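Data availability (excerpt). The following record was deposited with the supplementary files.
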Amino acid sequence: MTTEDIKEFQQAIGTASWKLNLDRFGEAIGTNPDYPYTKDKFKQFAELNSALSRFDPNTLMLIIEGGKK
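Predicted structure:
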């Protein structure tokens, strides 16, 4: 994994978070948007996007590399 891979992942998550409302998110993961499971995962996905956006790719790379030791 490279810093560029991490940057692309962050951008992909950000783009998906921006484009997907609950209904489209449910379609994407194959669940009914009315189910509590879908609503919970949608909330977690928004939290993931928020958390990832707080890190720069270089710092994330250092964290990942540090976890391998």
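Summary of structural features: Residues 3-67 form one domain.
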